[in-house]
Design goal:
7-stranded mixed sheet; alpha/beta; 347 residues
Length: 347
């Protein structure tokens, strides 16, 4: 159990603006009695200009986990708020969550486990959208379209650097500092996380997907109004101006707000992401990943060991992992095994 006097290994940075009920739920989920880990960690909440400061409403919710509340005044800036939280964090690793989420009991332990296993990496967890905290029902998020098309093994995705959404990820603090953190040039909605992911990729830091580091996401609203679209497009222009190299310029292919008649906006977005990924492969003369020649289903430790014996052969395989602690997702991405299409069926 975390003790206040311990130096934290992980600093969890949470940003919030005018949503005390949500951030109360999140901070409570990060309390020491709610997380299955003995590692010391802390929670840093950045109040990004809430009309009513949130600090008093969070008192005692984290239990014996150190809780720091940083107040920023002004109209709000998501990137600057995360930077303010990272600056206050004392941990060897930083993790980021948005206020409208909740951390399941394994969340801290899983981010730490993967961070310890990589020399340096951005570890991404996906979100599970859930309206009712009392209901087990949930829906997947937009990146599920990408992993269904490509693989849960981000090594097969040339455009993986576009996918570390800042609502649920972790990174070594030293790497974050070396990269300069999130840029506050991005105002309003969008692209501060794509900018960070691109700079990490350019510096040789991989983005990997931890399928068991997911978080609950509540009351998620996908806005497609004119003001939101204008913010996103303005920030994309900022990104393109900041990064003139071809890999970054290929972002112009992403259609984040498709509006075709009688079609699925989500599928159209995926089509644009596929074009984006194809362009990155063209720039680097990279062939598309080979399709799997067979599928291996992991239901036991002998199954997992059998897969491990085949990984070094280079044979294109599809691995369907039904073993919660097989370790295969980590090993496949740690060794950048792009010939392995990986999927998990464990929730």
């Amino acid at each position: 159990m975390t003790k206040p006097s311990q130096v934290p290994e992980l600093s969890v940075v949470v940003i919030v603006r005018d949503d005390l009920p949500a951030v109360r739920r999140l901070v409570a989920s990060l309390g020491g009695r709610r997380q299955d880990t003995d590692a010391p960690y802390e929670v840093v909440v950045v109040d990004d200009g809430s009309a009513v400061p949130v600090a008093s409403g969070l008192a005692g919710l984290a239990g014996d986990v150190p809780l720091v509340v940083v107040r920023r005044d002004g109209t709000g800036n998501r990137a600057a708020a995360r930077s303010a939280g990272a600056a206050r964090g004392r941990g060897r690793f930083l993790a980021f969550l948005d206020a409208d989420q909740e951390a399941p009991a394994h969340w801290v332990a899983e981010h730490l486990r993967w961070q310890r296993a990589f020399p340096a990496a951005i570890v991404v967890g996906h979100r599970r959208h859930r309206r009712d905290p009392a209901s087990p029902l949930w829906t997947p998020e937009v990146r599920t379209r990408v992993t269904a098309e490509f693989s849960e093994n981000y090594s097969r995705i040339a455009a993986a650097w576009f996918l570390p959404f800042s609502c649920n990820l972790s990174v070594p603090a030293a790497v974050y500092d070396e990269l300069g953190g999130y840029s506050d040039e991005f105002t309003g909605w969008g692209f501060e996380d794509h900018d960070f992911g691109y700079r990490a990729w350019a510096a040789g830091v991989p983005t990997v997907h931890h399928p068991h580091a997911w978080s609950w996401d509540f009351h998620h609203v996908v806005r497609t109004d004119a003001a939101r679209i204008a913010e996103w497009e303005a920030n994309r222009r900022t990104f393109l101006a900041r990064h003139p190299k071809p890999h970054a310029q290929a972002v112009a292919l992403i259609d984040n707000y498709p509006s075709g008649a009688h079609s699925s906006p989500g599928q159209e977005w995926l089509d644009s992401f596929r074009r984006f990924d194809d362009e990155l492969r063209r720039i680097d003369s990279l062939p598309a990943p080979e399709p799997p020649v067979r599928t291996l289903t992991v239901l036991s430790r002998p199954d997992a060991d059998h897969v491990r014996r085949l990984l070094p052969t280079g044979e294109p395989l599809r691995v369907v992992d039904g073993l919660r602690d097989s370790g295969l997702a980590l090993e496949i991405q740690r060794d950048a095994l792009a010939h392995i299409e990986y999927r998990t069926v464990i929730t």
